[in-house]
Amino acid sequence: TAGEVMGCIFYEIKEDSVYFGPFAVSPQHAGKGIGKTLLRAVIDIGKKHELQWCELYCVNHRSDLINIYSKWGFEVFGDNVPYPVPDRLTRPSHFVRMRKLLTDPL
Predict the structure, then answer these.
(1) Looking at CB atoms within 10 Å, which of 33, 50, 77, 90 has the fewest?
(2) Which pLDDT tens digit goes with each residue over 53-81?
């Protein structure tokens, strides 16, 4: 439908990387390739800026997302990142850092 929001992605240029997140697709449109299309757009921006990496942070409890990103070529790297507002948590949480080379296929 014209004007309907099907998904959204935030990105930011950081040194030699394009970082993305948060990232979401409307449940009505899940499984239609919209997420990959959004991510490809971010990767294209990173390539345009001649960056090396595409990076994201994923909360450690979302193993389903970590598995999807792994299938898309992302690998866990570096140290975990503390959750920024720990007093809002109902259980211990942190972010897992993941990245992929922009030259690798998605």
Answers:
(1) 90
(2) 999 999 999 999 999 999 999 999 999 99
Q: What is the pTM of this model?
A: 0.87
Distance CA 102, CA 16 (A): 10
Q: How far is CA 6 from CA 31, 39, 46, 89, in A?
A: 11, 14, 23, 29
Neighbours of 55 (CB within 10 A): 23
Task: Retrieve residue 85's tokens.
Answer: 């507002």
CA distances from 99 to 17, 51, 59, 83 (A): 9, 12, 14, 19
Instruction: Give how far Cα 105 sits from Cα of 33, 44, 72, 73, 78, Å.
Output: 15, 12, 8, 7, 22
Q: How far is CA 88 from the centre of its chain?
A: 22
Indicate the residue type of 22.
Answer: P
Query: Which of 3-12, 41-50, 83-92 is predicted least confidently?
Result: 83-92
